[in-house]
From TrEMBL:
It comes from Cimex lectularius (Bed bug). PANTHER family: GH22833P, PROTEIN KINASE-LIKE DOMAIN-CONTAINING. Pfam families: EcKL. Residues 148-347 form the CHK kinase-like domain. This is CHK kinase-like domain-containing protein. InterPro entries: CHK_kinase-like (IPR015897), EcKL (IPR004119), Kinase-like_dom_sf (IPR011009).
């Protein structure tokens, strides 16, 4: 799945031929992805079957340069047989570093990949062991700083939602319920066994809002704010006093957006948890029973961080729902999240920490600016009629903005005004 931050922070480049050559290189399947010996050993271990034999491996690249800047991915179909002559087929997703070294350096791909490998290889297993519960992530068979092997959940019927349309109330409640459960497990472990939790947490690091990443993200965040302010100026009416006042306040953020985001992702105790970090519709896959979504999985954990639980909530609510869901049913969604979180806390750490609904709302209010700025960053891509070019400069990006973008920015700002966040 695409990573939202990197997708919006591609620096302007020249030379389409160079980009095309890079893409072709990324789409090549490395020999290691079809390594039968490695896959056979891996499956023997994960299936607890030392006699399992891999007969054939078919690999197909599934990630283009414009889809994910932090890693390249390959879908692998493994066929084989067991000692009892039963045949089997396994569908896997193998993620690895991009082949292009320049891109690896520019986008800090190595620490990003290390973060995701730690999330799948250490953090999620620790939370699962503590809770004795299955977490809403794809099963991981192997995770190192060089390669991650996951269950290919799309082959099991999981599909992505439509980012332009957004998720309806049913999908959104399903997401918030699972997010509350995920955060609740993290919070319960922190309360019940702080030393073990600290050890688990130490495996991940803040990837985006750190000084080393300033050259990548600062300009993109400033441009996102600039575009949002421009759109508000264009579409404000003579009597839009609230919009005029909001524009005045938002202008004061110019030149400080990255620093403000750095402050907003710092832990806010006691309600900081292990967060997904890039929690929007493109990183959510759903499985259906007929036309009804009954299960959701969270994918792409490069940006996993330890921060206020409200950052994931806000990231989702400002980017991923149908317009009327985020405005008319936000309280219902937050209540769904809170109920799920409290149920897990009561089961795993009874009496350790009381979290009221007011506590959740307080965190949302404190970190509201995070959600607003994430919305500004992602709305150009969410509302684009065509896929945005990764090398698009500011002027061409403005020309590609759609009426839907202008409306969504205005609605988002008005909603934040109504809630007292601006």
């Amino acid at each position: 799945m695409a990573s939202s931050f990197w997708g919006q922070c591609m620096p302007s480049t020249t030379g389409s031929q160079v980009q095309q050559q890079t893409m072709l290189k990324e789409l090549e399947v490395p020999i290691i992805e079809t390594d039968q010996e490695f896959l056979q050993g891996l499956l023997r271990k994960t299936e607890s079957n030392p006699d399992l034999e891999v007969i054939n491996v078919e690999a197909t690249p599934c990630t283009s340069v414009d889809d994910n800047y932090l890693s390249s991915a390959t879908t692998v179909v493994v066929t084989g047989r067991t000692k009892s002559a039963h045949t089997f087929k396994k569908l896997l997703l193998i993620k690895r570093h991009p082949a292009n070294n320049t891109r690896r350096h520019v986008f800090r791909c190595d620490p990003a990949f290390k973060n995701e490998a730690a999330a799948f290889g250490k953090v999620i297993p620790a939370l699962a062991e503590f809770s004795k519960c299955e977490l809403p992530f794809p099963s991981c068979l192997h995770a190192t700083s060089q390669r991650i092997v996951l269950q290919d959940i799309q082959s099991h019927g999981f599909t992505m939602g439509n980012k332009q349309k957004g998720l309806d109330l049913h999908h959104s409640k399903l997401v918030m319920k699972e997010l509350g459960r995920f955060h609740g497990i993290s919070l319960a472990m922190k309360c019940s066994n702080k030393s073990a939790f600290e050890g688990t947490k130490s495996n991940i690091q803040e990837l985006i809002f750190v000084p080393e990443a300033h050259p990548i993200f600062s300009a993109s965040l400033e441009n996102a704010l600039k575009m949002a302010l421009m759109s508000l100026e264009v579409y404000k009416g003579i009597t839009d006093v609230a919009i005029v006042e909001a524009v005045h306040k938002l202008r004061m953020l110019k030149g400080t957006v990255f620093q403000r985001m750095q402050a907003l992702v710092k832990p806010s105790e006691p309600l900081s948890v292990i967060c997904h970090g890039d929690f929007w519709i493109n990183n959510l896959l759903f499985r259906y029973n007929g036309e009804i979504a009954e299960e959701v999985k969270f994918v792409d954990l490069q940006v996993v961080r330890y921060a206020s639980l409200s950052t994931d909530i806000l990231h989702f609510l400002t980017t991923s729902t149908e317009p009327e869901v985020s405005t008319d049913y936000r309280d219902e969604l937050v209540q769904t999240y809170h109920k799920s979180l409290c149920q897990v806390l009561e089961e795993l750490a009874p009496g350790a920490l009381h979290v009221s609904l007011g506590d959740i709302y307080n965190q949302i209010e404190i970190h509201a600016l995070y959600g607003l700025l994430i919305g500004f960053l992602l709305l150009p891509a969410i509302t684009a009629e065509n896929k945005l070019a990764s090398n698009e400069n500011f002027d061409s990006a403005v020309r590609s903005l759609t009426p839907k973008y202008y409306k969504k920015v205005r609605d988002l700002v008005l909603d934040f005004i109504d809630r007292g966040f601006i």
